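Show me any protein, keeping tokens residue-aligned.
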Amino acid sequence: MEKIRLKSLVGKEKPILELLDKFRQTLRADFSIEDDQGKILFGPPPEAGASRYPIHDGNGAIGYVSGGREMELVAATLSQLAQKEAGRRQVGTEVLNLYREINLIYNYSGKLAETINPQEIAEMALQEASHMIHFDGGVVAVLPEDGQDFVLFAQSGASFITPDRLPYGAFPPLSSGQSDIVYAETFLPDVPPRGQSLLYASLKVKHRVLGAIVLLSEPGQTYTAPDLKLLNTFALQSAAAIESALLFDKNIREARAREEALRRLHEATTKFVPFEFLRALGRETITEVQLGDYKEQEVTVLFSDIRDYTRLAESMTPEDNFRFVNAYNGRMGPIIQQCRGFVNQYLGDGIMAIFPFNPFDALEAAIAMHQNLHEYNKLRKKEGRVLVKVGMGLHTGPLIMGIIGDQRRLDAATIADTVNTASRIESLTKYYGTRILLSEDSLQLISHTAGPAAFRFRYLGKVQVKGKLDALGIYECYDGDPPEQIEAKAASASAFAEGIEAYFQKNFHLAEEAFIGVLAQNPEDYPARLFLDKARQFVLGNVPPFWTGIEKMEIK
């Protein structure tokens, strides 16, 4: 309690001065009043030998009344007034402290609402408590839900919680679930006995003990019941906030784990069902796919097939064969993806790829795949292995991509005549001795997009493949040939075009001469040799009735 200054009563309070005058008049005697420092506040200086009567405010003497014996009444009256003033001030102080506590707790509640980090909440609890409770050191320790040792979420000032006290039960203030004030040496025998005490409040939520807030007093300080009450209030608020933050953090971690699991699932499934396939169906993940999902769009289908694969496989063990196929696909698949296509299916010795945007992409991919194959064959040649030859066919048209099957087994499927046509064109590369063939439908779109000079083409006529009623114009693109073949075919392009035109106009003599000239420049021009052989047969008069020049292919 704050000590009352006598001067504040006697020197300034007018009613008290009037009361003292009445005492003097009634008692018909002078008296003097001095404070505890000997300063005269009322009346003349005391006479020698005058009696002195103390004035008390409840905490001790704050002054004296000097005079005769009747002045004891004056001293008693002033003592009552001083004690009354002291009591009033005590109430004011308590109200002010209570207001400060309420305001502090209110502000703390507001701050708790601004964070969901449990460590930040613990640090905030110590910081806010320090405004009302002095301490030499403080900690907030929390026991994880799946742990056996407490974890220090916050620490301030002197360090008194060592690692050996963190296991559950090793330091009762953390795990007891109680709140109390004890001598520090009770639980901290290694702390010098400097008259310090421990103040701790449990962090409890329902029936679970999360941990505790523990404060070590300053040397010579002893905590009191109001300190414990205040710390309990902080602990109650902090426990609820920390539990919510831990729960939120747990939910976030679980959500991230689920998200990571879905990401890995999606990543794994896109290796079986391409993401581009799903996106074409308007889906982002495999989990969104439903039986019956489909979409029709115009695409370019590319079929690739390894020539004489059976003979090639017979020279390898099953394990070597498996490694070979994986190595080959590992080279070709990324090229397709780089050219904005996706592999719809690996067919062992073949690849079916879809290019949803433009046949230009598909042709670029086919050329790049052959260029990569040339480099691969150089390596195989050095190692004394059989060279790999590949034919590729492209066709553009409508295609339905969708999910077929039943409720227990789904499969991604492509359904369209476009797929069959592209496959038939690829098989024609064996007949014509070419590396890349494409349909007239694909060529027209490529020419419209990039211009006819973007690639090197040769017209090979029209073909009626097995199972088709309409003939299909086909073209060779020799940009994927070895460099020496590209140069040779480009040099003889005019002669080859002249021979083709003469051939389909039934001028077989002129066609024969033209193809002989082409082969003179490039003996490995297999399409030129094919048409030369046909032209020679027709020169001999073996022209079928109603011949139109359309090749009817009976093989797939």
In short: Residues 94-99 have pLDDT under 50 and may be disordered. Residues 225-269 form the longest helix (45 residues). The radius of gyration is 50 Å.
